[in-house]
């Protein structure tokens, strides 16, 4: 019985492969290395003592995807991470995002639909909620019009899966991530942004190590605790563990509906300045930063109500913000040593 992890060498994918292998599940990784490195396989092996089976191809290649599922007829479930995720890039090149994030999902579902039964876990995002009116955000919160093609691909992906689960043997869980950060405590795997990081935490650690001169803090006039935006930063290992629980729920037929949705966050919001403070504390360094204008498209505040995941998946985050920042810092130092 094999578990396929698409995008399994990426940031969240690689941490999930580790947690799956820790549970003795047999993992097959599909990754086209477009935003990841083959060396991640070695990191996974150093942590778990095992290299997953690895197939390097592009899921936009329908024929290659069909061939893959023919060769691996014993696939029990798919955890689908492979997707592009840069909001700004998606605005400049929407068709890249619709092809990469939507077409590949369709091809995977077409193959799963041929099976007597199949399970898929889909990487979604809290971006589907936009700026919610009520905080913390529960899964019942209405979805808002997407603010970018990237966000739209997540909404469309959710809708496609919802339609397909209604008429096929596919069971699915949609996981809506808040802001994943950190790295494996071993510092064998972590986040490897290509070029200038767009996300807060890799920008902070790269500034801390001296790769960037200063962090620009986008706005301090929001109606929040200190004027900076509030997000729910979740340790990537906690997030990865939720994927294993979600998959086991489907494999053990414990799901109550063919399509279930869970928010994955800590339940606690932190401001940009609080994240900077946590970094300074765990690294013992002073972070150079400057307040600048707001970034277009940023919501003021978003954090999760995690009651459903806590109760139904039996999952709870373990790590604090400081622990997550410490792991991100340890990883950054190790990467730069290399
Ligand atoms: C962003 C995306 C979101 C996507 C997620 C994937 C936007 C508007 N949202 O979330 O759709 O699902 O990434 O990882 O791009 N910040 C700074 N300076 C920086 C970088 C960030 O002040 O150099 C602030 C931002 O204004 C924000 C917070 O840090 O308040 C977090 O930003 P980021 O890490 O980019 O995540 P999101 O914007 O929440």
Any overview of this molecule?
- The chain has 338 residues and is an alpha/beta fold.
- The protein has a domain at 2-182 and 234-265: NAD(P)-binding Rossmann-like Domain (Rossmann fold).
- 41% of the residues lie in helices and 17% in strands.
- The chain has 11 helices and 13 strands.
- The strands form 4 sheets. Strands 3-2-1-4-5-6-11 form a 7-stranded parallel β-sheet, sandwiched between helices. Strands 7-10 form a two-stranded parallel sheet.
- Helix 6 links the parallel strand 5 (118-125) and strand 6 (170-177).
- Helix 7 runs parallel beside helix 9 (272-283).
- The longest helix is centred in the first third of the chain and has 20 residues, at 94-113.
- Bound molecules: uridine-diphosphate-N-acetylglucosamine.
- Residues 85, 87, 125, 127, 151, 179, 198-200, 203, 215-218, 229, 231, 272, 295, 297-298 line the site of uridine-diphosphate-N-acetylglucosamine.
Fold blueprint:
Blueprint: E1 2-6, H1 11-22, E2 26-30, H2 40-48, E3 53-55, H3 62-71, E4 75-80, H4 87-92, H5 94-113, E5 118-125, H6 149-167, E6 170-177, E7 179-181, H7 200-208, E8 215-218, E9 230-231, E10 233-235, H8 236-251, E11 259-264, E12 270-271, H9 272-283, E13 289-292, H10 307-313, H11 321-337
Parallel strand pairs: 1-2, 1-4, 2-3, 4-5, 5-6, 6-11, 7-10, 8-13
Antiparallel strand pairs: 9-12
Helix pairs in contact: 1-2, 1-8, 3-5, 5-6, 7-9, 7-11, 9-11
Bound molecules: uridine-diphosphate-N-acetylglucosamine.
């Amino acid at each position: 019985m094999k578990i396929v992890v698409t995008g399994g060498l990426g940031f969240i994918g690689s941490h999930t492969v580790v947690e799956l292998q820790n549970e003795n599940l047999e993992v097959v990784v599909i990754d086209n290395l477009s935003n990841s490195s083959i060396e991640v396989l070695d990191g996974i092996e150093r942590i778990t003592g095992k290299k997953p089976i690895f197939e390097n191809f592009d899921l936009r290649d329908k024929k290659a995807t069909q061939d893959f599922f023919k060769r691996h007829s014993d696939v029990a479930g798919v955890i689908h991470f492979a997707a592009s995720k840069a909001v700004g890039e998606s605005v400049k090149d929407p068709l890249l995002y619709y092809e990469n994030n939507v077409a590949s999902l369709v091809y995977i579902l077409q193959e799963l639909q041929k099976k007597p039964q199949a399970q898929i876990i889909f990487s979604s995002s809290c971006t589907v909620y936009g700026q919610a009116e009520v905080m913390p955000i529960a899964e019942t919160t209405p979805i808002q019009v997407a603010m970018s093609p990237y966000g739209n691909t997540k909404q469309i992906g959710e809708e496609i899966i919802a339609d397909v689960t209604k008429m096929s043997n596919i069971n699915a869980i949609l996981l809506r991530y808040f802001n994943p950060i950190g790295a494996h405590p071993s510092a064998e795997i972590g986040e490897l942004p290509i070029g200038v990081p767009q996300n807060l935490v890799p920008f902070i650690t790269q500034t801390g190590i001296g790769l960037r001169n200063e962090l620009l803090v986008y706005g301090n006039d929001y109606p929040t605790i200190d004027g900076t935006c509030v997000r729910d930063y979740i340790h990537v290992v906690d997030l990865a563990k939720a994927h294993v629980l979600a998959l086991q729920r489907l494999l053990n037929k414990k799901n109550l509906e063919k399509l279930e949705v869970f928010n994955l966050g800590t339940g606690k919001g932190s401001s940009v300045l609080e994240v900077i403070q946590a970094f300074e504390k765990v690294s013992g360094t002073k972070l150079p930063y400057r307040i600048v204008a707001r970034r277009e498209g940023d919501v003021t505040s978003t954090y999760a109500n995690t009651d459903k995941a806590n109760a139904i998946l039996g999952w709870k985050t373990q790590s604090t913000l400081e622990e997550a920042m410490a792991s991100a810092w340890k990883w950054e130092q190790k990467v730069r040593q290399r």
